[in-house]
Specification:
It is built from 3 helices and no strands. The chain has helices at 14-17, 29-52, 57-81.
Length: 106
Amino acid sequence: MSCQQPQSCGGASSAQAQNFSGGANRLSRQQLMKNIMLYGFACVDASLYLDTHPDDAEALSYFKEHNRIYQEAVEEYSKTYGPLTIAHAHHCGAYWNWVDQPWPWQ
């Protein structure tokens, strides 16, 4: 596969990404959002490549790894700062508490 993870973008390394909530290694809100955007873009880019190269094992591995990191970042962001979208809302009891969370732009 010709695309590589951009090194100059400052995204989390695999070791960092595996431990978003790791005490001293905890990422700031801004760093976490940057990683969500970075790894989300990498997943979209890899999925477009895989649409035309479905048998590329390296590309599939790249997609799986970056998708895992993306999902972990979204999960950590949602738990710490609230869901980014309704799809990331984790709880809904007798009251629709989605509206009580600060909106992502707040």
